[in-house]
User: Fold these one by one.
Assistant:
Number 1:
Amino acid sequence: MAGVKERAEVLREAAEPGSRIGLTELARSSAWRSTLKKRGLLEIVDRTDTAAYLVSVDAMNEMLDSINALESEIERVTTQQLFIARGEREHWQAGDELEREAQDSLRRRADAIREFLGGER
């Protein structure tokens, strides 16, 4: 529900006078600069089609901060899901124990492949 509210707010702001500027007005005047500074974002239109968006440095930094925060949250949740998926495989090994376990695992796999292929051990 919050997503709908946020989209409605963005549309309301975009519909306010001064948030859109025509391409010809952009070329002929510099009055749009104060609007851009105040709003942070201007939609540039060519007739009725959106041609571009102008974003102030502050607004761009805010957007980048939001994107970075969302990416961090995605990374955190993904990592959490990896640990949940691992379940009981939380026994970490190192050194000789890891080497021995890896060699045993390879031997078991080789034996399983030989059995599957009908060969001898």
Number 2:
Amino acid sequence: MRRGRDSESDVTHRTVAQLTRTVGALGHALADLGEAVAHAGALHYLTSLPRSSQRATAIASTRSQLHARIDSTRRRLHQAGGRLHQQADLLAAAPASNRTPRTTNTAPVAPPIAAPSRSR
């Protein structure tokens, strides 16, 4: 065991690292979703234009990009969900003593005091 670190801090460190990676994947998924919405808006605009071969090409290209963004979003969300499940399984398998938070503050907390009314 490394000096200055206990098993609880190791579990906490792994949890924070895993959640950080998951949040990154979720951020990428949201970015992909934003691009998908932009492509959907472009499709809406393109369908309002007069029919032409350029319009048909642009619609096909934009539709392909839209499907690619949706697929990427789905893949990233699936990966993030898998990471969260994996981390939950690791935490569930950890001994109970590693999951119990340590409390060092034993002093009672005073209830909040209501602020005086400012209305007259």
